[in-house]
Amino acid sequence: MDGYARPVPRFLCIRHAESTMNAEGRWQGQVDAPLSERGVGQARALAGRLSRAPAPAAGYARLLCSDLLRAQQTAEPIAAALGLAVEVDKRLREADAGCWSGLLHSEIKARWPQELARYRSGDEHARAGGGGENRHEVRARVRPVLEELAHAHPGGGDTILIVTHSGVLRTIRPGLPIANAEVHTFDLADIGRAWSTT
């Protein structure tokens, strides 16, 4: 993804709204938890904000989301508000958290303090839950999605919505604080430069 001098799509990347496991303080990974009642409200509110905000010059071209339920339930009201179809792509799912999946954050911190600190430090090769994915592996499956979108929209100027997870977004911008239902704007050229250094 280097050498993008030509116009490229702009990505509005959204972390899914609050899930039931977020509300309980649990590490989800790829456990397929639905949105909490608060999360349903967050998703609807976000859809309303996006529908009222001035649309990009070329409009919203597409809406993609992870195949996990919390991402799909966040994407659906946005799609309805903007008149888009939801395109589900498994490659956008959260990082596999291995044996940490489903555990409380406090349990993980108590049982694996060094491993958790290493993973949260942004170490590219640290694995969540021992057998889970590291950031390098998550990036390797997300990268082709973005490249495919860039090639599908070669004229540039398009804005593409992506509903995904904090683990995916932190591979794009390490250390980024990411709240539920929060929107971050990325340009593929910027992503390419960031990933070329890791």
Which keywords apply here?
198 residues, alpha/beta, Rossmann fold, 5-stranded mixed β-sheet
Characterization of the model:
- By secondary structure, the chain is an alpha/beta fold.
- The chain has a single domain, classed as 3-Layer(aba) Sandwich (Rossmann fold), CATH 3.40.50.
- It contains eight helices and five strands; from the N terminus they run E-H-H-E-H-E-H-H-H-E-H-E-H.
- The chain has a five-stranded mixed β-sheet.
- Strand 2, helix 3 (69-82) and strand 3 (86-88) form a beta-alpha-beta unit.
Q: What's the helix and strand layout?
A:
Layout: E1 10-15, H1 20-24, H2 37-52, E2 60-65, H3 69-82, E3 86-88, H4 105-111, H5 113-120, H6 135-152, E4 159-164, H7 166-172, E5 183-187, H8 188-196
Parallel strand pairs: 1-4, 2-3, 2-4
Antiparallel strand pairs: 1-5
Helix pairs in contact: 2-3, 4-5, 6-7
Average pLDDT score: 89
Structural class: alpha/beta
Strand content: 5-15%
Please identify which CATH superfamily we are dealing with.
Phosphoglycerate mutase-like
Q: What is the gyration radius calculated from CA atoms?
A: 17 Å
Report how far the terminal alpha carbons are from each other. 13 Å
How many domains? The number is 1
Major sheet summary line? 5 strands, mixed
CATH architectural designation? 3-Layer(aba) Sandwich
Along the chain, the helix and strand elements come as EHHEHEHHHEHEH
How many beta-strand runs? 5
Oligomer: single chain
Identify the CATH class: Alpha Beta
> Helix amount, in percent?
40-55%
